[in-house]
C-alpha cells in the first residue's frame, strides 16, 4: 500500500499462475497458430535461407584476400562484386518474407488470445467482477495484450532467426578452428549467467510497470465515468493529486527498469568485446606463426560478428521479452481463473416456463461470516405478482441475484418449475427473465439499439408497442431522430425517469415469462409512476413477477407481499391483511403515509 492506494498485483481471489515462463508463453502463442502450417513452413525456409546466406559474404571476403589479391586476378573481382550484390538481394527477399510471415503468424496468435481473454471474462461469474476493478481488467485486455503484440510483431522473428544463425555459425567456426572457437565461446556461459540474473529482475520490474499502468487506468475509468460527481463536489484538484501519485508510481517503475537495463547491456557489450580481443590476439599470433592466413582471420572475425550479433540483439530484445512475459502472467491470471457459477454438462433447456420459483433453506453471504440470507424459504407462485418489502440491506436484491444465478447459495437450493437452477442452462434460465433494476444500465448507442439489446430481431412495430406499454413512446418521439436518437454514454442525454422507462420497455420487448422489477419505478415522478403501474397491470397478467420496492404505493396490488428483515421473512399476505395484522408492514406503511395512519387502502 502506497499513499493510501490499494495495490492490485494479482487478480483478486486468484493465485499466481504456474504458466508464466517464457517457454510457456511461446508455446501457447505457437499452439494457437498451429493450423497455419503453410505460413510456418515459409517462415522456416526463409529463416534457414537467411542463416545460410550469412556465410556467403565472409567466404567471398576470405577468397578475395587469400586468392585474388596475391594472384592479382582482376577478372575475379567482378564476380566477387556480383556475388556480394546477389547475396544482398537474396538476404533482402528472405528477410522480407520471414518478417511478414512471422508478423502475420504472431498477430494472428495475439488476435486469438485477446478474443479468448475477452470471451473468458464474459464467462466469469459476477463475484469475480465484485473482487476486481474494471480499470485493471481493461488494462489486461488492452495494454498487456499490446505488450505481446510488440513481442510477436518484432521480437519473435529476430529471436528465431538469431537462434538458428547462432547454432549454424558456431558449428562452422568449430570446423574452421575449434580451438579458437572454444576460447571465444568460453565467454558465453558468463553471458548466460548474467542474462538469467537480470532477466528475473527485469521481468519483475516490468510487472510493476504493468501494475502501475493498471492503476492509472483504474483511476481514469473511475473519475471520467463519475465526472459529474467530481464537479458537484469540486474535487478536481484532489483527483488530480491522486492521479499524480499513480503517475509517479508508473514513472518510478519505469526508471527502475531502465536502471537494470543500463547495467545489463554494458556488461554484455564488455563480454562481446572480450571475445573480439581474444580473436584479434590469438588470430594475429597464429598468422605471425604461419598457422593462419590473413583471409582466414578476416573471415573468422566476420563469423564472430555473426555469432555475437544475436547475443547483442537478444540483450536489446530482453526488455521486450520480459515485458511480454510480465504481461503474459497477468493475462494468464485471468485465463486460469475459474467461475464459481458453473453450468453442468448437458444442462436442461427450459421450455414453456410457468415461473414457479422456490427457495429451500437457502443460506448466502457475499463475505464469509456475514450472512445475508440464513435458512431462507420463499415461494414465487406462477402467474402471480409477488412483492418483497423491507429496509435497505434486508436482502431483497440478493434474492433476485440468486434467482438469476449471478451467485450460487452456500447452502440450500433454488428451483424453477421444480428444476434445480444448477441443472438448468444459464442462458436458458436468463432468457426466461426480464430484469428492470434500480441501477439502470444503458449502452452508448441509439434508443432503438438499447431497446432491442435482448431481442435483436425485434420489428419496428414490436419496439414501438413496448415503448408505448412503458409510456416511453411520447418522449422518444420528442427527440429529432426518434428511436434512432443517440443517448450518450450510460444514457447521459436522458433524464432519470426516461432512463427508467426505456429500461422497462427493453424488458417488455424481451417478452419474458418471469419479470423482476427491482425498484423499477424509483426514478419516476408521481404521474409517470401511476402510468407505469397501470401499464404493468396488463403487462404482468398471466406472467410470474417479482416486485421489490421501498415505496409501498407501488406494490399494493400485488397478489402476495413478503416482509423481509435481516435475511428473514417476518410476515406475508396481501396489502389489506398485512395492515390488519399490525406488524412490520403496517409500521413501514405508517412511516411512508403518516396522514393515513392505519386506514386500509
How does this structure look, described?
The protein has 20 helices and ten strands. The N terminus is likely disordered. A hairpin with a 2-residue loop joins strand 9 and strand 10. By secondary structure, the chain is α/β, with parallel strands linked by helices. Helix 3 runs antiparallel to helix 4. The strands form two sheets. A six-stranded mixed β-sheet has the order 6-7-8-3-9-10, with helices on both faces. Strands 2-1-4-5 form a four-stranded antiparallel β-sheet, covered by helices on one side. The radius of gyration is 35 Å and the shape is elongated. It has three domains: 314 residues, ABC transporter transmembrane region fold (Up-down Bundle); 144 residues, Rossmann fold; 73 residues, Rossmann fold, CATH 3.40.50. This is ABC transporter ATP-binding protein/permease. Keywords: ATP-binding, Coiled coil, Membrane, Nucleotide-binding, Transmembrane, Transmembrane helix. It comes from Paenibacillus oenotherae. It is found in: Cell membrane.
Amino acid at each position: 500500500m502506497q499513499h493510501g492506494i490499494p495495490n492490485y498485483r494479482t487478480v483478486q481471489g486468484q493465485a499466481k499462475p504456474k504458466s508464466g515462463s517464457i517457454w510457456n508463453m511461446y508455446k501457447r502463442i505457437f499452439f494457437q497458430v498451429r493450423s497455419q502450417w503453410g505460413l510456418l513452413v515459409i517462415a522456416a525456409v526463409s529463416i534457414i535461407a537467411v542463416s545460410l546466406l550469412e556465410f556467403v559474404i565472409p567466404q567471398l571476403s576470405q577468397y578475395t584476400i587469400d586468392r585474388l589479391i596475391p594472384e592479382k586476378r582482376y577478372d575475379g573481382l567482378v564476380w566477387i562484386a556480383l556475388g556480394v550484390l546477389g547475396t544482398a538481394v537474396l538476404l533482402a527477399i528472405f528477410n522480407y518474407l520471414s518478417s511478414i510471415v512471422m508478423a502475420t503468424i504472431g498477430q494472428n496468435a495475439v488476435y486469438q488470445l485477446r478474443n479468448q481473454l475477452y470471451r473468458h471474462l464474459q464467462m466469469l461469474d459476477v463475484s469475480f467482477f465484485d473482487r476486481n476493478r474494471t480499470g485493471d481488467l481493461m488494462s489486461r485486455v488492452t495494454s498487456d495484450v499490446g505488450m505481446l503484440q510488440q513481442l510477436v510483431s518484432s521480437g519473435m522473428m529476430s529471436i528465431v532467426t538469431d537462434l538458428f544463425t547462432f547454432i549454424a555459425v558456431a558449428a562452422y567456426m568449430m570446423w574452421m578452428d575449434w580451438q579458437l572457437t572454444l576460447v571465444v565461446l568460453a565467454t558465453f556461459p558468463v553471458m548466460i549467467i548474467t542474462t538469467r540474473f537480470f532477466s528475473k529482475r527485469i521481468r519483475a520490474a516490468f510487472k510493476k510497470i504493468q501494475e502501475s499502468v493498471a492503476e492509472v487506468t483504474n483511476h481514469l475509468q473511475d473519475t471520467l465515468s463519475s465526472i459529474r460527481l467530481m464537479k458537484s463536489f469540486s474535487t478536481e484538484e484532489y483527483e488530480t493529486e491522486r492521479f499524480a501519485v499513480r503517475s509517479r508510481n508508473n514513472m518510478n517503475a519505469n526508471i527502475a527498469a531502465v536502471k537494470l537495463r543500463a547495467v545489463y547491456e554494458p556488461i554484455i557489450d564488455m563480454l562481446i568485446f572480450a571475445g573480439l580481443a581474444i580473436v584479434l590476439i590469438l588470430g594475429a599470433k597464429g598468422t605471425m606463426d604461419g598457422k593462419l592466413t590473413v583471409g582466414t582471420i578476416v573471415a573468422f572475425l566476420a563469423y564472430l560478428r555473426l555469432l555475437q550479433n544475436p547475443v547483442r540483439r537478444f540483450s536489446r530484445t530482453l526488455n521486450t521479452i520480459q515485458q511480454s512475459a510480465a504481461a503474459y502472467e497477468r493475462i494468464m491470471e485471468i485465463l486460469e481463473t475459474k467461475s464459481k457459477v458453473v453450468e453442468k454438462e448437458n444442462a436442461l433447456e427450459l421450455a414453456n416456463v410457468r415461473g414457479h420459483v422456490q427457495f429451500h433453506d437457502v443460506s448466502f453471504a457475499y463475505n464469509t461470516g456475514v450472512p445475508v440470507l440464513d435458512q431462507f424459504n420463499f415461494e414465487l407462485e406462477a402467474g402471480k405478482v409477488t412483492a418483497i418489502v423491507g429496509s435497505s440491506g434486508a436482502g431483497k436484491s440478493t434474492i433476485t441475484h440468486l434467482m438469476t444465478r449471478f451467485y450460487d447459495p452456500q447452502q440450500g437450493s433454488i428451483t424453477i418449475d421444480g428444476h434445480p437452477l444448477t441443472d438448468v442452462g444459464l442462458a436458458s434460465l436468463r432468457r426466461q427473465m426480464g430484469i428492470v433494476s434500480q441501477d439502470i444500465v444503458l449502452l452508448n448507442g441509439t434508443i432503438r439499439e438499447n431497446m432491442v439489446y435482448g431481442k435483436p430481431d425485434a420489428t419496428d412495430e414490436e419496439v414501438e408497442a413496448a415503448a408505448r406499454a412503458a409510456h416511453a413512446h411520447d418522449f422518444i418521439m420528442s427527440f429529432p431522430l426518434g428511436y434512432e436518437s443517440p443517448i450518450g454514454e450510460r444514457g447521459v442525454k436522458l433524464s432519470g425517469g426516461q432512463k427508467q422507462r426505456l429500461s422497462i420497455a427493453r424488458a417488455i420487448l424481451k417478452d419474458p415469462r418471469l419479470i423482476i422489477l427491482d425498484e423499477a419505478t424509483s426514478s419516476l415522478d408521481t404521474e409517470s409512476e401511476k402510468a407505469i403501474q397501470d401499464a404493468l397491470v396488463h403487462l404482468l397478467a398471466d406472467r410470474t413477477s417479482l416486485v421489490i420496492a421501498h415505496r409501498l404505493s407501488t406494490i399494493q396490488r400485488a397478489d402476495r407481499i413478503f416482509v423481509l428483515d435481516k435475511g428473514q421473512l417476518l410476515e406475508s399476505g396481501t396489502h389489506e391483511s398485512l395492515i390488519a395484522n399490525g406488524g412490520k408492514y403496517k409500521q413501514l406503511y405508517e412511516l411512508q403515509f403518516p396522514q393515513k395512519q392505519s386506514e386500509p387502502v
